[in-house]
Predict the 3D structure of the following.
Amino acid sequence: MKTLKLFSVVAILLTVSFICFHEYMPNTLLPSSDQARPVRHPMSSIHSTTGRMEAPAHHQIPSTHPVSSHMTIPQFKDVPDMTLTVRMSSNVASLLNFFYCTMLRSLALYWSGQLGNLGLILDKESQEDHKFAENLQKYQEHLGINITIHYEPLPKNERVLTVAKSKPPGYNRQLYSSFIMDEFISTPIVAWMDTDAKFTTPVTRDNILTGNKLRVKGMNTFQYSWIQSWDKLGIKMIGKPMPSDFMTFFPVYIWRDTITNCRNHILKHVNVSTIEEAYIHVGSQNSGVMSPVNIIMTYAYYFEKERYDWHIDIGNVDLQKYNKLRLIPGHELTSPDLTPDFHVTLHDKYYKDDKNIVNRQAYCAAAKNTVLNMEQNIKQMCEPFKTNVMWVLFEFCNTVKQEHLTTWCKNKNKHCSSMIKEHYDKTRQLVNKGVYNLDLKKLKVVEEAAKFHQIKCLPFL
Ligand SMILES: *[C@@H]1O[C@H](CO)[C@@H](O)[C@H](O)[C@H]1NC(C)=O
Ligand SMILES: *[C@@H]1O[C@H](CO)[C@@H](O)[C@H](O)[C@H]1NC(C)=O
């Protein structure tokens, strides 16, 4: 599919390299054309503006390292195109703070632009959101990650905004919005991320796909009351119980058409003609707080199981008992579905790390034994973590318990530790090839962008 677009890529690359040969625009340094990402086509010019303008040469933007030419060897050639998708609204201060200081800073280090763009879905009618987007897109080149903006109009029926009574309108809108992401995101994969999550390691192909199946993680968290109410509303939306909690990892990789299929299924199941009606009808029952991620992934489990590679941690519970309690006959989990997997992010909002250890551990682990020439102070910072094993990759939250260290990785067993080791063998190769340059100046770029909103991030490391 990507090769089909080669011609247009060649044409664009040639043009780009003639008109703007920027020292820090890694992709203009490409020695040959097959190393480029395909140019993305936004679904509709009404909803989307792809920011691909050259950043003005603001001297306050810290210039990031030109990366050696071998960085451009494409590592993800056989990976379908994806969009790291975030539903944002710039008028909530706490969201903005998480967005810049947590999500975007970690993304700048650990997400490769070669994997896909960052795609933001914003409120169409909000002037602030338009300004937010305009400011942000100035920095994309320096981050090495293109940012695509999609504007979502207000729902036609404003009752959508008050369905979950305990939540503000913006929250309701975001929940509802998740059911129509496929109308904005046009890549075959939607990599769905919350604003308050952060990456803790460079992402490799194997973190996303097993063969051609998208990896999914799930966890048995049914002890929490809100999971049970999510389950109840999910059953009303699609008629099936949650096989596990899928709100326990990010990004959630979803085939774009799974969202379309799920929505069509909901319309039939709820017997309505629009997703707004379904959301209002079902949400008006119970608390109204539903979990779209769980509804979509539960749909995927029952209707498209073969397109995904499942890693469900059922805890220290017997599989047969679990199946009897949670699953529908004919749809039981099998032991291959229970294979351990680790996280590339954690849910920062629910992860207490007062001394800011995780970012340092993560950076040192990513840089360790690579060809990178670290500054003296970074070397010093990493000294205490020399023998550290990144067990944090098996955690997701710690203020709400969501981890695998007492289940899959009980007693920090060999199986889990070798998974960590193998992962870092792969990230090391990616760093050595320059796919990830771990350039700390990118943090400054994000911090600079955040100043537009008077946000001052705490030190990252
Ligand atoms: C970003 O977009 C520009 C213009 O379309 C393109 O040349 C460049 O390769 C893209 N960069 C990445 C990292 O995808
Ligand atoms: C679905 O809704 C239509 C009209 O809204 C109604 O006529 C029909 O009986 C409903 N079908 C079911 C199965 O409830």
Observations:
- Residues 80-453 form one domain.
- The radius of gyration is 22 Å.
